[in-house]
Amino acid sequence: MTLQIESDVPLRALNTFGVAATARRLVRVRTERDVRRIVDHPELGRMPKLVLGGGSNLLLTGDVDALVVKVEIAGRRVLEDDARSTLIEVGAGESWHELVAWTLEQGYPGLENLALIPGTAGAAPVQNIGAYGMELADRLESVDVVDFVTGRCATLPAAHCRLAYRDSVFKHELAGKSLITAIRLRLPRPWVPVTGYADVERWLQREQIGDPTPRDVFDAVCAIRRGKLPDPQALGNAGSFFKNPVVNRTIRNEILADHPDIVSYPLPDGTYKLAAAWMIAACGWKGRTLGAAGVHEQQPLVLVNRGGASGADVLELAHAVQESVQRKFGLRLEIEPLVV
Ligand code: EPU
What are the E-state strand segments in 11-169? Predict the structure, then answer.
């Protein structure tokens, strides 16, 4: 089968911010071999590439000249299942949330804290998705990639992916250089619930659940997310738009002296994660709108498209928020999604 090259493709429906942009050229890949066909193609092989999964961690600020490679590689299978763990292999194009639901239905718990995260399985390692006390790094075994220059396939063990808070090698050295075709996840046995996150604990208490099942944790996470994060189908967004700043004790104490109410969490290495949502709210941005872009009412870390916003509108709002936070707290918030 030859590659179907699509030209001048509207991207509005392919990014969860719902901003308008056009891809000059787009190809869909369904197999590893499709990726190698791109590499071997006389014209496409030489073009810069933008890999697109669910478009849920992306802000498009204009038309895209790079070749858009839409990943649609399917497949979910259990590779190993024994008393100590289950190893699952997933095609990069699979929906992450459907994967989480499927593992639960199959009796393989261990991903439930990551329920309802939009996007694809292949994108999960790129930003090391995380929520409610768990991150992909806790479960990732390995990642299959194809090199965009050589067409060579390789399996990267998780330790080589340099996963960190919303970060990985795929955002740095390997950005635009390779495509993730599959990931493998190891789910440990026996299952131990991860319920330390305050919101999850509170939800379980309210429901009077003392000894939660995997399904209870899944339900808790889904309910909490639905309560505070806007559904991209209803209101365009890309989840948290900024990372929570991580600072050392000295900086945290300096900020605390001026802002005693600031919300912060100690990390195991002695640093502190400051709640960016709190800082943005403290700057008066909560629920505010600039042009057609806005700061979400329930979760100020999320920027939203109130209807017809362009990527440039969202970025302008982001810069205004960054400037306010910098002025008040002396810290520059880092933008989390990929801005193109
Ligand atoms: N907060 C405020 N004011 C608000 C809202 C929140 O002060 O209006 C404070 C809360 O008191 C809370 C803190 O902000 O203590 C954190 O809120 P939340 O639990 O929602 O977490 P977050 O730091 O805002 C992070 C992730 C989310 C993830 C949640 C849950 C980042 C960049 N974001 O958000 O991930 O779902 O924790 O674990 O780390 C994403 O990456 O797109 C994303 C949604």
Answer: 22-29, 49-52, 58-59, 67-71, 76-81, 85-91, 130-131, 134-135, 140-147, 153-157
Q: Measured between alpha carbons, how far is 296 from 27 in angstroms, rounded to an integer? A: 34
DSSP character string of 8-34:
EEE-GGGSTT----EEEEEEEE-SHHH
Measured between alpha carbons, how far is 122 from 36 in angstroms, rounded to an integer? 17
pLDDT tens-digit readout, 101-113 = 999 999 999 999 9
CA-atom Rg of the chain in angstroms: 21
Contact 90, 74 (CB under 8 A): no
What is the tens place of the pLDDT at every residue in 163-212?
Answer: 999 999 999 999 999 999 999 999 999 999 999 999 999 999 999 999 99
Domains in the chain and their CATH numbers?
5-71 (3.30.43.10), 76-188 (3.30.465.10), 236-339 (3.90.78.10)
How far does residue 239's CA lie from ligand 1's centre (Å)? 10
Please say if 33 is a catalytic residue.
no
152 Cα to the center of ligand 1, angstroms? 39
**Does residue 181's CB lie within 6 angstroms of at least one atom of ligand 1?**
no
181 vs 94, 105, 198, 331, 338, CA distance in Å?
10, 24, 35, 37, 19
Catalytic site includes residue 240:
yes
Residues 324 and 279: beta-carbon distance below 8 Å: no
Q: How far does the centroid of ligand 1 lie from the alpha carbon of residue 218, in Å?
A: 18
Residue from 112, 117, 73, 86 nearest 185 by CA: 86
Q: Which of 166, 184, 186, 252 is catalytic?
A: 166
